[in-house]
Amino acid sequence: MEEMEEELKCPVCGSFYREPIILPCSHNLCQACARNILVQTPESESPQSRRASGSGVSDYDYLDLDKMSLYSEADSGYGSYGGFASAPTTPCQKSPNGVRVFPPAMPPPATHLSPALAPVPRNSCITCPQCHRSLILDDRGLRGFPKNRVLEGVIDRYQQSKAAALKCQLCEKAPKEATVMCEQCDVFYCDPCRLRCHPPRGPLAKHRLVPPAQGRVSRRLSPRKVSTCTDHELENHSMYCVQCKMPVCYQCLEEGKHSSHEVKALGAMWKLHKSQLSQALNGLSDRAKEAKEFLVQLRNMVQQIQENSVEFEACLVAQCDALIDALNRRKAQLLARVNKEHEHKLKVVRDQISHCTVKLRQTTGLMEYCLEVIKENDPSGFLQISDALIRRVHLTEDQWGKGTLTPRMTTDFDLSLDNSPLLQSIHQLDFVQMKASSPVPATPILQLEECCTHNNSATLSWKQPPLSTVPADGYILELDDGNGGQFREVYVGKETMCTVDGLHFNSTYNARIKAFNKTGVSQYSKTLVLQTSEVAWFAFDPSSAHSDIIFSNDNLTVTCSSYDDRVVLGKTGFSKGVHYWELTVDRYDNHPDPAFGVARIDVMKDVMLGKDDKAWAMYVDNNRSWFMHNNSHTNRTEGGITKGATIGVLLDLNRKNLTFFINDEQQGPIAFENVEGMFFPAVSLNRNVQVTLHTGLPVPDFYSSRASIA
Q: Assembly and partners (predicted)?
């Protein structure tokens, strides 16, 4: 029953109702509180003046007064009764229940009469503190409002059901335990309040004070007051006016006020309204039951949310830790590669330092020996050894040429970490389910008529469906590895066309595309199958060649403007498959030694091919050839070239070897083995040589048959 307590408290004083009266708006007030909030109105607005003017408004008709009220929920806390020429504004206060009330314009006169009997100021107005409707009182004052005997009975039963000690009814804050009760005042007092409010002198000295428990019993045993008519105080209610919806006495029916109204027996209407209230309570009880079940559901949701939050946080931390672990493992792998490159560079430089140091020591010794020989004064002895010394000096000088004094290794690391796709993926890492209010883009459509392949490149084009209304922030293009492996991202951006270079020749790729926005990603498009060229068609690349290289014949023919060797690369790189191309010698003067083979993209361009560790080559003159890599010369083979000769280069990346041919005959053994990575066709030559490139050639038959036998 504790939830009912707020229904039993006055909106003005915040305490249990004392002698509650019913206002015409159906709200209740303590009779004393009703008197305290009365406001005096101007004479012109009194009921008498209104009746004299023929307005015909009933005593309790407050519809017009509702229109005059200036109170609103958004005001500044002040209210007045509009329409009065000189109506004073009255500060608005709040009761302990949080309801706004209007205090009296002046303190009530001191009196010892009960609130019901005390005179009411003339032309008084009362405003309901709950609905804020105003009402001008007639000559009867507060006696014109019916008493709510039912509410009194409910309060008595509620207080009797509480076993707690009786509290003082006059304490302003934190009521103390009552020590006495006045039977005449019907009020419980603590000692301080009794001395202050009920001194034992004057008329109050005759009042009988009893212990609180005895007062509760006497209050419980006191006979219930019979409800009497407000217009005829000596008459009890006997009938019920259906039109006015109020109990009436027989005099009300005889005097004409309710004579024309429909009336019914009080007992019958009492039973009818009880039945109606019971039925209404059944529906409200169902709603209250649903509300309790809903509260249980909400409390369970709180618990479930807490459990799910802990579980989700643990899952999120585990996922992020897994990403961090994977990144750390990849970091370790990349650092190992950097360390490997570091050690390799140091080894090459240290080997070159050692080689140059030995050669310099030999050269210095020869120089010192020659100087001592020059000092000899014996002509015949000098001439015996001078020719040999001159040849040795020239040979030593030649050994210091052709790149000997050029570093074999650059100081820059030929590694570049592309972390932009990973950073973009990290930035796109989000909870897509949190944005489910916005739809994801529609699935893109690949435009087959614009998709094609050329050599080892593939061009793909796509678009959004014609009826799509959800914009896409970008697209993600994925290709597999050309061997039926996993898909990987090759493009992320806003464009609707992309060319992918560096694919494997004679390979079948699967491509697919999806769109994304801030909400998430779409479904994948249909998979498109792409076939790269079986053989490579390419030309020389002017953009990466040395500036002394001269191009002609659509970049298929090259020569050089310098007497020094210069390097030129092909436009296409190879990393998989078997590839064969040929070069014909168009001009060959003064027996130069051009070099043919493959190289990395960052090979040195101003020295003979094969001088550094980025090239694998065969250099050849008119009599013989050598294989060279990292300035190491191997496998001298008889047989050279002349004008019109054809040099063939066979790069077999399936078997990881490189073989050379001259005039359709294999030149020496397999030149290099264990070659892997990305290689570009390469040539080095000087101004005495001109060659023409021939591509798109099949692998020689004898090599194919040999490979099939192996």
A: Interacts with SNAP25.
Here the tokens at position 303 are 């618990």
Residue with tokens 């060229």, as numbered in its chain: 533
pLDDT tens-place string over residues 630-671: 999 999 999 999 999 999 999 999 899 999 999 999 999 999
b/e code 543-575 from CB counts within 10 Å (16+ = b):
ebbbebbebeeebbbbbbeeeebbbbbbbbbbe
How far is Cα 375 from Cα 373, in angstroms, rounded to an integer?
5
320 HSE (CA, 13 A, CB side): 9
Q: Which of 329, 344, 337 is nearest to 417 (CA)?
A: 337
Residue ranges and CATH numbers for the domains of the chain are 164-219 (4.10.830.40), 237-261 (no CATH), 270-400 (no CATH), 445-531 (2.60.40.10), 549-707 (2.60.120.920)
What count of residues does the chain have?
A: 710
Alpha-carbon span 237 to 149, nearest angstrom = 13
pTM exceeding the 0.70 threshold for the entire prediction? no
pLDDT digits (tens, 9 = 90+) for 419-460: 888 888 888 887 765 544 568 899 999 999 999 998 889 999
Which H helix or E strand runs over 351?
Answer: helix 266-374
> What number of CA atoms fall less than 13 Å from residue 536's CA on the CB side?
28
- Residue 153, helix vs strand vs coil: helix
Q: Which of 572, 561, 586 is nearest to 532 (CA)?
A: 572
CA-to-CA distance for 445 and 224, rounded, in angstroms? Answer: 87
**Token couple for 150:** 């039912």
Interatomic CA distance for residues 225 and 212, integer angstroms: 22
